[in-house]
Task: structure prediction
Amino acid sequence: MVKMDHLRQIFTSLGLSSVETFIASGNVIFESASRSVPALEIAIANRLHEALGYEVATFIRTNAELSEIARYEPFSAPELEATGATLYIGFIAQPLSLEAQHMVMSFQTPVDNFHVRRREIYWACRVRSSESIFSLAQLEKTLGIQATFRNSNTVKKITAKYATPEC
Result:
């Protein structure tokens, strides 16, 4: 596990400002003058690989995008209020093709439900995620992409803390 002060130092070394980490979860909040999100994602991923010695999937969302993601309701309230249900949000680099979306939907089980929207995959899990047959590794292998999942509560806490008035 990477210490958060080291992670902040890596991001600062790229010339990013107002660098903060959020709850030791790999979420880094920062400001950048860069106008190219894809180029910035690549620069961060390369710097992380250089500093840590392994590949780190890197996904950037603006405050406005993250606020919209946190507000989005892909599943009904009763489905998410079921005992033990948790909503996870998967972040990916590019929107999925129609074929890839169908592949994601093929992961559905009686305890796992999925919804794809833009560059996010919403996963409603009605058991502990460790008890589900679905996994991040399975998703990445099947689709041939990198992804990362966060609990929707974490995403909502980030937006509550960092959202700007225009979000």
Summary: Residues 109 and 133 are 9 Å apart (CA to CA). The longest strand covers residues 17-22. The chain has two domains: 4-60, 74-162. The helical segments are 4-12, 37-52, 63-71, 77-81, 98-105, 136-143, 152-162.
